[in-house]
Amino acid sequence: MARYSARVAWHVRRRASVGDPAAVTRSIKDRRVLISIAFDDPQLVRWQTDLVRLHVRDCVHLIIDNSSDDQAARRIEAEARARDLFYLRLAANPWKDLESGRAHGLAMSWTWRHIIKPGAPRAFGFVDHDLFPTEDTDPFAPLQTVPVCGRLVGGAGRRWSLWAGFCFFRFDAVARSRLDFRLDWYAGLDTGGCNWQRLYRHIDRGKIPAVTVRREAALPGRPIEDCYFEWVGSWLHEKRFNQPFEFRPQKREVLACRLATLSAGTNPVHCQPDVA
To answer: Are strands 131-133 and 148-154 parallel, antiparallel or unpaired?
Structure first.
């Protein structure tokens, strides 16, 4: 844990390798900011940015690119620029593949330190890059009555946190909390779990509105346990982690069709799988 903490502390101080953080901080004061942590998949970013523009009103959509592949990062940047969105690429980090949760937590902590805290938005939230709004929605709405909201996940004992892929915060309620989005193994909590000590333990979990989560079979003829999508409220989650690699191409084809069907008003061309 000490080595992990030291590495995070060093990497979180590094500058973005692409983009202008100062321009972002100047643009988000007193606004609502939706932050997508992107990773090596421009197609997902293309679909998500179009759907957020269609279904999530009154927010700045910021792309924080944690990609390890330079070509993918250039394509993600192009998708963001084409939609006139803020884009920042982080410096390379040492965690890959099965350690992706560590890299994700680093990206969130970096964003808090360099963008959110100095920018002082009205509210901010993080979403996974493979999570898609499928109807008009306002994920920030519960923050009118509670300091944080999103998908609750439990840990050891009474500990809990918000899932890193769908978590939202009212800035004035957390500005002094020194947020830390690392994993906390000892508390049984995944990415963002270190915020239990710094924030969540001071909040009444029972007052946070519940978000309905359910699974849906992704492939015809395959059991749901083999391959599934996940619904987080009205957001559709591709859910790649801990699912068989062999089903990914078919699952992506099905996702493309689902998004084209669910996203009335979005150009269906954007929901076709890449050929290359």
So the answer is: unpaired
Structure tokens at 193: 């779990």
From 126, 117, 116, 129, select the one nearest 73 (Cα to Cα): 129
Between CA 26 and CA 31 the distance in angstroms is 11
User: Among candidates 46, 51, 53, which has minimal Cα distance to 262?
Assistant: 51
DSSP 230: E
Secondary structure E strands in 179-263: 213-217, 228-232, 235-237
Is pTM beyond 0.85? Reply is yes
Residue-wise pLDDT for 87-135, tens only, equals 999 998 765 654 565 789 999 999 999 999 999 999 999 999 999 999 9
Sign of the dihedral defined by the CA atoms of residues 161, 164, 170, 176, in that order: positive
pLDDT tens column, 22-77:
999 999 999 999 999 999 999 999 999 999 999 999 999 999 999 999 999 999 99
Taking a C-beta distance cutoff of 8 angstroms, is the pair 247, 227 a contact?
Answer: yes
Distance, in Å, from the CA atom of 25 to the CA atom of 29, rounded to the nearest integer, reads 7
* Burial class for 217, CB neighbours closer than 10 Å (0-12, 13-18, 19+): middle
Domains of the chain: 2-207 (3.90.550), 213-271 (no CATH)
